[in-house]
UniProtKB/TrEMBL annotation:
Entry GO MF terms: D-ribose pyranase activity; fucose binding; L-fucose mutarotase activity
Organism field: Thermoclostridium stercorarium (strain ATCC 35414 / DSM 8532 / NCIMB 11754)
Reactions it catalyzes: alpha-L-fucose = beta-L-fucose; beta-D-ribopyranose = beta-D-ribofuranose
Keywords: Isomerase
Superkingdom: Bacteria
Keyword Metal-binding set for record: no
Pfam families associated with the record: RbsD_FucU (PF05025)
Protein EC: 5.1.3.29
Gene3D superfamilies documented for this protein: RbsD-like domain
Record flagged with keyword DNA repair: no
Record's protein name: L-fucose mutarotase FucU
InterPro entries attached to this UniProt entry: RbsD-like_sf (IPR023750), RbsD/FucU_mutarotase (IPR050443), RbsD_FucU (IPR007721)
Length: 145
């Protein structure tokens, strides 16, 4: 046990967060995301019993977002024609605001297959059991000062 570390963060995930350097990306994936196939060149960490919001909040306690890019956070755009609401995105904004002054301005949206392409280059993918649709979120690491 360590003091000050969110209990949800496993030793494996802590190691990955520590290994990541400036500009590296991590995906917090919902339960529908093809984590293993998209992440075949990444470190895939299973957190099936947890949701994306709790994982995001824990990671951002230790992980600075990149200040050298306008949008260090990316979400998967809703596919045109999908009649889907994304209230989880509002939750993400609230969480990001706690740790980064840009809040929602730190976020951009990528078309579904572009998101998959960028996610395939991520350092790590955290596979959660999140059931909300379009709940995938990609973070780009900044500099620890």
């Amino acid at each position: 046990m360590l003091k000050g570390i969110p209990k949800i963060l496993s030793p494996e995930l802590l190691k990955v967060l520590c290994e990541m350097g400036h500009g590296d990306r991590i995906v917090i994936a919902d339960g529908n995301f093809p984590s293993e196939s998209v992440g075949k060149n990444a470190k895939v960490i299973r957190m099936d019993g947890h949701g994306t919001c709790e994982v995001l909040e824990a990671i951002l306690q230790l992980f600075p977002l990149d200040t050298y890019v306008d949008h260090p956070v990316q979400l998967m755009q809703v596919v045109p024609g999908d009649n889907v609401e994304t209230p989880i995105w509002d939750e993400y904004i609230k969480i990001i605001e706690k740790f980064d002054g840009r809040g929602g301005n730190a976020i951009s949206h990528l078309e579904r297959f572009k998101f998959y392409g960028e996610a395939s280059k991520a350092y790590a993918i955290v596979a959660t059991g999140e059931s909300a649709l379009y709940a995938n979120i990609m973070l780009q690491k900044g500099v620890v000062v």
